Amino acid sequence: MTGPLADPKARAEQLLALLKAAFPDRFGPEAEADLRTRLQADAERAAQLRAQPLDFTDEPDVVFRALPDEP
Amino acid sequence: MSPEFAFLPVRELARRIRSGETRPLELTEYFLDRLGRLGPAYNALVTLTRERALREAAEAEAELRAGRDRGLLHGIPYGAKDLLAAAGYPTTWGAAPFRDREFDYDATVISRLREAGAVLVGKLATVELAGGMGYTQPNAAFTGPGKNPWNPEFWSGGSSNGPGSAVAAGLVPFALGTETWGSIITPSAFCGVCGLRPTYGRVSRFGAMPLSWSLDKIGPMGLTADDCGIILAALAGRDPRDPTTVDRPFRWDLPDRTEGFRVGVLKGSAENAQPEVARNFEASLRVLGTFCRLEDVELPEFPFNEIASTILFAEAGSIFEEFITSGRVGELTAPEDRYRPYAYLVVPARDYLRALRLRKKAVRALNDLFSRYDAVVSPSRLTVAGRIDQDFRTYMPPRTAGVPISAAENVAGLPGVSVPNGFGQNGLPTGIQFTGAAFSEDRILAVAHAYQLRTDWHRRHPAV
Fold first, then answer.
1. A70 to chain B: which residues are within 8 Å by CB?
2. Which residues of A touch B343 (CB under 8 A)?
3. B266: which of A26, B39, B158, B326 lies 20 to 30 Å off by Cα?
4. By the CB < 8 Å criterion, does A29 face chain B?
5. Is residue B71 classed exposed, middle or buried when 0-12, 13-18 and 19+ CB atoms within 10 A define those classes?
């Protein structure tokens, strides 16, 4: 899949543009730089997670249990 | 009352109540006075629960006189982090938008302490919204920055800053804190007190502000590991109102076993630590070596930070979605808390689910490793507390603000107890943490208790 939906940078730029427009008093250059760094870190985190091998048998615990194999 | 009562552990206070040296009402009035008078000096107090405390203390006294003894916590005052609902008083979550909001019920943990006869004397300060909005400096609550009783120019740690300061300064015998990622362990280490983060599912979260449904834990902070065990025994157990709680009994008494433990030493855990923190950890290992078999251990390889962050941001983003999108987040105290949470709203579902899938594998691997030991030890934090006007990023190495185990233990919901193990820069405390396999609180507390039989750091108190 290509295009903006798959591109975290595009998503980040959209969010930053929205915030600048909606909250100009709260969202100055320093805040923008900080949030841009955070979003970049989020994208790197996501990439790290995607680098981990998983197959279809690896199901999430939607309700977390500290010992998932116990009833 | 003699000033020594400020720093007596629960077990000793209980003995003195039963010997007649004090009474619940006298003890309660003593701590109400201390907390009311001194709590504001550390920005530790939100609300004194005076009327409720006096009523509960009077009931405790009458019951004990009538021969109805509920156990060691009967008549003992305590404070609760202000994320925990208590009927009749505000529950503010440390956030200006909620400073007048009340719930008409008690959190389960508060009900359980009530059943045990403990006396709620105050709601204690917390970083706003449990620190989950991304704060980077201590002034992140309408109560102001938490101040460390050992040196009030320095931070108490968070997000359970009120509990940490209040216990360290002898304003309450014990307190309830919470931890999503570091919020019991950090203030415990920074303030030189004992803090227990129980296994996820051990203690009901009903009535507590959720920050992350699958990461939040509630636990005791007190003067000794033994106290933490006594309090956990009152808190633990299945609660139908929190379906993630498990039916695994927890009982605690002073352990017979005080040696012969098998303890893992987390390899490299002190590598990025301040020299004094590393030195104190080495000294602790020498003490542990006299009664434990020590072995180096390494964590299995998983991206623990990335898993924990993704889960936290996705769940917090969902919990606080309306709060963020309505713009009310703009009313928070810390400037960075007013915009950082918007990033939570763009975490893709597939990233969250991937994190959950990896988490399950990590949980199995970690329990497989930790179950071979009575405890795995590491420094609780890599630094002592920073100044109250200092950005964390200037003294905490990135991604190692805790220790390498911090993300792993919270991803897996593992129990851990931090106890004081010395002092570092600026006369501030350091801590050592004992982490265990899921539901092994009895073992980690036994090792920590045995450590405290051989050391006296937990008996040192600040001049307040």
1. 246
2. 15, 35, 38-39, 42
3. B158
4. no
5. middle
Contact A38 B360 (CB under 8 A): no
* Phi, psi for B455 (deg, rounded to 5): -135, 170
Mutate to test the interface with A, among B205, B339, B361 (most CBs of A within 10 A): B339
**Is A69 within the bounds of a domain?**
no
Count structural domains, chain A.
1
Chain B CB within 8 Å of residue A26 CB = yes
The set of catalytic residues of B is 81, 159, 183
Q: What are the structure tokens assigned to B61, written together?
A: 């006294």
A17: contact with B, CB 8 A cutoff: no
The DSSP bridge partners found for residue B423 are: B429
pLDDT at residue B400 is higher than 90: no
Residue range B28-64, pLDDT digits in tens: 999 999 999 999 999 999 999 999 999 999 999 999 9
Q: Is A56 domain-assigned? A: no
The token duo for A55 is: 């197959």
Tokens of B363: 């949980």
| DSSP letters for A1-63 | --SGGG-HHHHHHHHHHHHHHH-TTT--HHHHHHHHHHHHHHHHHHHHHHTS---TT----SS
Is there a contact between B329 and B323 (Cβ–Cβ < 8 Å)? yes
Per-residue pLDDT tens digits for B73-97: 999 999 999 999 999 999 999 999 9
Could you tell me the pLDDT band of residue A69, with boundaries at 50, 70 and 90?
low
Mean pLDDT of chain B: 96
Query: Which of B133, B245, B302, B342 should we substitute to test contact with A (largest number of A Cβ atoms within 10 Å)?
Result: B342
Entry pTM: 0.94
> Is residue A40 situated within a structural domain?
yes
Handedness of CA A58, A59, A64, A69 (dihedral sign): negative
User: CB B309 to CB A26 under 8 A?
Assistant: no
* Residue A53 CA: distances (Å) to CA of A56, B40, B298, B460: 10, 51, 21, 49
Record: contact A61-B335, CB cut-off 8 A: no
Pairwise CB contact (< 8 Å): A48 & B438: no
- Lowest average pLDDT, out of A26-40, B173-187, B353-367, goes to A26-40
Question: Could you give the CA distance from residue B242 to residue B124 in angstroms, rounded to a whole number?
Answer: 23
pLDDT at B192: 98
Residues of chain B positioned with their CB less than 8 A from the CB of A15: 342-343, 345-346
Chain A residue numbers touching B303 (CB-CB < 8 A): 45, 48-49, 52
- Where in the sequence is the domain holding A33, given as residue range(s)? 24-50
A18 Cα to chain B: minimum distance (Å): 10
Q: Are strands B45-48 and B119-124 parallel, antiparallel or unpaired?
A: antiparallel
A27 contact B CB<8A: yes
Whether residue A1 is contained in a domain is answered as no
